[in-house]
Amino acid sequence: MKLFKNFIIIFLLLFSNNLYANENSERNEITKNLRCLICQGQSVYDSDSDFANSMKILVDKKLNEGLSEREIYIYFKEKYGDWILYDPGLNKNTYLLWLLPILIFLFGGAIIFKSSIFKK
Amino acid sequence: MKKKLIPYSIILIFLIIFAVFYKSLKDTNIYTPETKINNDIPIFSADLMYLNQNSTSTEIFELDKFYLLNIWASWCVPCRDEHPILMSLSKNNKLTIIGMNYKDNKKNAKSLLDELGNPYEKIIVDKNGTISIEWGAFGVPETFIIYNNKIIKKYIGPLNQMLFMEIQKTIK
Amino acid sequence: MIYSVIGHYSLILGLCVGLILIFFSIQNFKNSNQLDAKILSFSFLQLFFVLISFLALIISFVISDFSNETVFNNSHTTKPLFYKISGTWGNHEGSLLLWLLVLTLFIFIFLLRTKNQPIKYKILTLVFQQVIIIGFFLFLIQTSNPFNYLFPVPDEGLGLNPILQDPALAIHPPILYLGYVGSSIIFSSALAATTLKMVSTSWAIHIKKWVLISWIFLTLGILLGSIWAYYELGWGGFWFWDPVENVSLMPWLALTTLLHCVLVLERKETLTSWVIILSIATFTLSMCGTFLVRSGILNSVHTFANDPERGLFILIFLFALIFLSLFIFFFFHQTGKNNSSNFFWLSKETSILVNNWFMMYFLSVVLIGTVYPIFLDVISSQKISVGPPFYHKLIAPFLIPFLFAMAIGPRLKWIRSDLKDKIYLIFLLIICILLSFFIVKNFNTNILINTILISSALYLFFITLRDFFNKKYKNFAQNTAHFGFSLLILSILFNNLFSSEIITNLKVGETYDNSKTKIVFESINQKKEKNYKSIIANFNITNSDGINNNLSPELRIYNQPNITTSEADIKTTLMKDKFIVINLVQNQDYFNVRYQVKPFMLWIWLSVIMISLGGLVSFLKKRV
Known about the structure:
By secondary structure, chain A is mainly α. Chain A folds into 2 domains: 25-87, Helicase, Ruva Protein, domain 3 (Orthogonal Bundle); 90-120. Chain A has helices spanning 2-16, 26-32, 50-64, 69-80, 95-118. The longest helix of chain A has 24 residues, at 95-118. The radius of gyration of chain A is 19 Å and the shape is elongated. Chain B is of the alpha+beta class. Chain B has one domain (39-170): Glutaredoxin. In chain B, 40% of the residues lie in helices and 25% in strands. Chain B contains 6 helices and 8 strands; from the N terminus they run αβββαβαβαβαββα. Chain B has helices spanning 2-26, 57-60, 77-89, 106-116, 130-134, 161-170, and strands at 39-40, 45-48, 53-56, 66-72, 95-102, 122-126, 142-147, 150-156. The radius of gyration of chain B is 22 Å and the shape is elongated. Among the domains of chain C are: 1-160; 500-602, no CATH class. In chain C, β6 and β7 (564-567) form a beta hairpin. The longest helix of chain C has 33 residues, at 201-233. Chain C is flat, with a radius of gyration of 26 Å. Chain C starts with a helix and ends with a helix. Chains A and C meet through α1 and α5 of A and α12, α13, α15, α16 and β1 of C.
C-alpha cells in the first residue's frame, strides 16, 4: 500500500513537470509540443515548413513578451484548437484517454493480487 | 447466463470498434482548424507597403465598418485566381479591403499588383509570417471579414464566385 | 511486360493452390494417420509461385519496365540499382507481396520443421494460415495488384520518394515483416492448438522457437526504422511516438509478454487462456497496424499512399479474423481442472505475472494513445493530438517499479522461493540511488523523477552485470536481454538529459561562437550525382574540450520526384554523436543550421542489438 501511495505522489509530480526537460532553450521545449499544421505528422520543432518557421519566431516573440509556457499553449490553443497541442490536457474530452490505461492497470493488478495471494 | 455475458460483451465491444473504424475511413485525416468567428481581432503593429510607416491594428481597423483582410503572396498560385474577385469587391464602397503580404519579396509583390491591379486600401507586410499566425491563419490565401473589431467570417483557401455573393450579402 | 504477365498469373495460381491446400487438408484431417505428402508439395508450390511473382516484380523494377503501374509510380531510370531493387518493397503493392512471400515461406518451414506434434495440429495450423494467405491473395489481386498494365507505356517513371532511398530503410521492411508475419504462425498454431485442446507444456516448448524468431526480427526491424528516423527524418530524434512507430511497438509489446508467458507454460500447465489471448493479440495487432497505416486513418510523418477501398478490405479481413478467433476461443477453449493460477506470491511465476501486468499497461497506453483521437473524432467530432508528452507522462513513472521487478524477478525460483542475500540487494539499491542523485544533481534538471528513474535503471544494470560473472546463474539469454534493456533505458535517459543543441542561421564564411562551441561555416561545394544534385556545406566545429571536427551536411535536390532532402552529417564516437544538419530558408540567402551533441546515441543502438542477441541465444540454446 505504501508503494502505491508513493506511486501516486510520483504520478502527480509528473503532471506538473515535464520529465525530459533539458538544458535546451525554452523555445525548443515549447515547439516540441506544438504540432505543425502543414506537415501534420511533425512537431513545429521537427518541421521545416514556412509555417513552422514562423511559429518558432512567434514563440520567441511571446517568450520575450514575458508569457509563460502555459500561457503560450493557451494562446495557440485559442487560435488553432486543441489539435495543435501534442499534450492533451485533462479535460472532458480526454478523461478516458488518461484514465483508461490507469484503470486497466488497476484491474490487472486486482486479478494478479487475487490469484497469487488469496488462493494460497 | 453469467458465463455468456463475457463473450457477448466482448463481441459487442469489437463491433463498436469496427463501426468507429469504418466511419473514420470515410473522413479525411487532414486537420483544418475550425473557422471560429466572433473573436476579437489580434492586436499587432506592422509595416505598411507603399507607405513606409508603421501602423497598429487599431489604426487600421476602425469600428462600425466592414473590413476584409486578405492574406496573399506573389508566389502563391491560388492568390492569382482570387484576385479578380478581390478587384470586384473593392468596387463596393461599404467594404474596405486590407491586404496582408505573407513572406514575400517586395519587388515581386509590387509587380503582381501592377500587373493585376491593387484592390487593397492598405497592405500590411508580414515579413516573417508571425502576424498571420496571430490571426490564426496557416497558409495563403485566407480571408477574414471584420466588423466592430470582431472576425465575423473566415475563409480558408481562394475566394470564388459563390463566396463573393456571400460576402456581398454579409455586408448589406 | 512479359514479367508482369508471369507475375500476375503466378499470383492467381498461388491463390488456387491455397484453395486446393484447404481442400486436401480437410480430407487429410478426417483421415489423419499420417501427413499427406501432397500437402507439403502443394505448400512448396505455393511458396514457389509467390516467389516467382516476387522475382518478376523485382525484375520489372530492375529493367525499369514502365508498362507496370507499380514500377511507373515508384521507380525511375536514373535511380541506382540498389534502390531499384529495394523500391520493390518500398511501396504498398510490393510490400504486400513481400508479406505474402513471408507468410508462405513461414508455413512451409513450419510444416517442414515441426516434428513430434500431432498430425491434426499441423493440418489445422496450415488451414488457419491458408485462411490468412488467401485473404492476402484476394487483397493483393483485388485492390492492389502489383502487375497492373499501363498503356500507353510511359517513357519515364515517377521515382521513389528520396527519403526512402537509404540503405537502412532498404532492409527495414523485410526484417520488420519477418517479425510481423512471423506472428501469423503463432496465431494459426494457437488457434489450432485451442481447437484440439492441446495448449500444454509441450506445445509451449514447440511454439517458443517461433515466438523467439518473430521477436528477434521485430526488435531488429524496429531498431532499423529508428536508426533511419534518426539520421534521415528528424533533427536527432529517434522515436517520435508517431502512429506508425507505435503500430510497430504494439505487436512487440504483446510478443514480449507472450514470450515471458510461454516460459511459464513451458514448465507448468497454467496461464493457458492468457497465452492463447496473447498469441491472437500479437497477430491481430500486426494486422491492425497494417490497417491503420495503409488506410490513412492516421496522419503521420511516414507518408503512405492512402486508399479507402484498401482500408475497407483490410478492416473487414481484420475483423473477420478477430471474430473467428473469438469464436474458437470461447467455443473450444476450456480451462482445465489442473489449470489453476495459484501462485505463491514470491516466485518466478508471480514475477512473470508482474511483467505481464506492466507490459499490458504499456501496451494499453500505446494503443489508447494511438486510436483515441480516431474515436473522439467519430463520436464527438473533437480533434485532438496525442503526442510524446502523453506517453512520457504515463509510461515513465511505471517504468520505475517495472525495472525493479526486472532486477529482482529472475533471481526468484520457480514455484516458491526466498530472497537470498537481501542485504546485498538493499545495499546495492542505496548505492544506485546515491550515484544517480549525484549524476542528476550536477545538471540542474528535474531532480526527483530523474534520480528515481536513473537509479532503478542502474539497479537493473548492476544486478544483471554482476550475474554475468556469477557461475551459479545460468540463464545467460535472459540476463543478456535484461542487461540490454537496462542499458537502453539508461542511454535514453542520459541522452535526453545531456543533449545540447545550437540552432542558428549562417551564411557561408560566417562564424557562430558561444562560450562553449564555435561553428565556422567554411565553404559550399556542389556535386552532381546520377539522380540528384547536392549542395555540401563544410563546417569546422570546435568544442569546449578543444576537439575539432569537420562536418559536411548535405542538401540533396532529387530530379524525380523533385524533392529536396537534407542529409545530416553525424560523427559517431563511443560516448557521443555530433549531429549537424542544414536547411534552406525561403527567400533568404542564409542556411538554417542545427548542431547537436547527443551523448550515448551509439549505446541506444547497441543495447537494442544486445536485447535481440539475448533472444538469439535463447533460440539457439538446446533445452536441457
